[in-house]
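Task: fold both queries, return tokens.
Query 1:
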Amino acid sequence: MKLPDGPRLMSPLQILQLVIDPPKYLENCADKYGDRFTLRVLGNNSPPVVFFSHPQAIEAIFAGSEGLCPADQLELGRITHVFEPLTGPQSLIAKDGSEHQRLRQLLMPPLHGKQLPRYGEAIANIADSVSENWSVGDCISIRKYTARMSLQTILQVVLGLGPGYLMNQLQQTLETYLEWVNSPLNSLQFFWPALQKDLGAASPWGKFLRQRQQIDDLIYTAIGDRRREATGEDVLSLLISARDENGEGMSDQELRDQIITLLLLGYDTTASATAWVFYWIHKFPYIRDQLVAELQTLGSDSDPAEAVQLPYLTAVCREALRLHPIALISQPRVVRESVTIGGDRFQPGTVLVPCIHLAHRRSQTYPEPEKFRPERFLERRFSPYEYFPFGGGSRSCIGMALSLFEIKIIVASCPQPLPIFL
């Protein structure tokens, strides 16, 4: 089997470059090797990892090739062992087949559809509270504020917490924990198990384990509180009451793993995406003016959820997510039976990675791809293999609808005109 070309560097050096500056490394590889290339980023003796950015190749991965269902050819959860110390073994992203389908069916209703408008007022109130002291001419660090809005949304809308000890402790502990997890140097430990040694509270892995235990204790307390109350419209309460086709609900361990997954995948990503929307609005006055004019069509007493339907606001958010998706890649797939994609035959064990970052920057799909132009989303509809900021196929981000809903309401709820962002 001849794999697509790729760098000849040793695996540790490839991992290092990918961790230090992922977008630049991926872009350099695409410039040199094209729409598909092979990296060795899982260790010297690990399977090859092939990155794809062509829509037809991505369709084959998401929807299946040669007329077969992707589940017949690809294993979807196996590669996520890297994240197990973070999310836990019962997380949705760690499951395959019927187990994955069961969890997804339990998680979907509280995070999609008719349930979302019920969260609108709470998210709008959070945005109003966090931005209440903004003034025109002020210089503010927008990322700090969107992070606060995102975390408050998770604590109130997802966990159902109100002001008090548990909310304060979770907020303080999560901010420190997530900052540590997102550090490039610390994230190397998840790729190299040899570094995962608990040498005491001062050691990197020891610090991680103790922080994780603090978070777990607080989350289990929240789960216990919600179980005793047995009512509520927050996501956790709805998950506790959810039942599968056999009438069974989720265990505390399953709930903990889903909640921590939503925290890890929904906090920093949504905060960053929202910050980028504000950045582009601030950078181009004509975009800001058009957006403000559209927002003014809503009445002063309108339901916050009405903003979600506004076409230009939607286009601005989609274009921001094109350039700054919630992740650089969609969830990797592991070949379980030989599969042909674009004329190349891939053998079992090969890891296939749909690359969101590169697919969103293909000039053939998006003319002038580095230019921020919301109008492109008003002019045409892009396929789910050309535009997939939350991943795609059966492994698309379970929190996609809530995240986009949150971003739009925050942007619509914050003061207009805006202060100066840093």
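Query 1 returned. Query 2:
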Amino acid sequence: MTTTPAPAARTLTDPDTPFAVVDVHKSLRNIERLQARANRLGVTLRPHMKTAKSLDVAALLHDGSACPVTVSTLAEAEAFADGGYTDITYAVGIDPHKLPRVIALLRRGVMLRILLDSTEQAAFVTEASRQAGLPIPTQIEIDCDGHRGGLRPDAPALTEIGRILHDADCLDGVLTHAGESYFAYSAEEQRLAAQNERDTAVAAAERLRAAHLPVTCVSVGSTPTAHAAEDLTGVTELRAGNYVFFDLVMAGLDVCQVEDLALSVVVTVIGHRPEYGWIVTDGGWMAMSRDRGTAAQAQDQGYGLVTDLDGHLIPNLVMTAASQEHGTLTARDGADLPDLPVGTRLRILPNHACATAAQHHGYHVVDSSKDAGSAPVIQARWPRITGW
């Protein structure tokens, strides 16, 4: 889980394709942007590491020191605990089978918070807590828009769950995620989504407090709402994950610009089908994922936009189709295909950074702020966390 120094003078022309690339300069710029916003809003930023799944990327977040993080699997929680992170939220609903791993992390001194939204879950969590002889910090998931999970703040079960958890010294707070903000297509819609996210979480916390149940943590966040929030009064922490890399979905929402995308995939041209207007590469959905998140946006970006090896966009060239190991590039709006001989290396900017990163074991790291000469120099290779 540690950085591997790159061999001298290796560039993006050297490793076999396809492979994932992180531009550390752009990542740092993205990180600093949201941290500055969290500071202005007076809340703790708890980055979601499900996107990068990397201790090396996490080290960029807080000058190399451990900070509060969010994870989406217990394997991530364990890997970050091994890396010195002791304040972790596992933001997926809990089931009984996973509790022994949760308790093992708590016994190691890790403040691991879990999530639930039912009395059934609260009952088996508190029973496990009593048997283990230690509290299991637990947050109640609140549904602010997407209905994937969570309770509405006026749900009758909210205070019942809160009481069950409190009686076992397990109640930690409430957590919500504005998943529908990924379909908020204007700045005003995103601002309203952020306001609704805050209002919903705070209303749930206030209802629990009115029932004499203590609420320490009020946690909100998604990448769109984190960048749109104007007032987080009553909120204690802000979560986001995609912002470290950004992607074409976020660019399509104007949360970022295409120039901010820090993750790309290097592929090689392996063929041409001029009769169909195709350029064929060795990067299919195994390299890019099947995510087509921009299809619902005003500008469908296919499976990704295409740049040269230095990261400059090639006008009107889009990855429009993918099979397992083959990618198809076509020209948009009747434009001519560029002359890209077999062996040409390109970079594809992804629709969904989380899904694309998940296809790779690690990242080759470049720094666009430095003069790379004929091709970007690989500064290091950062492994990703694996396992479940």
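Both queries returned. Flag for query 2: DSSP finds eleven helices and 18 strands in the chain.
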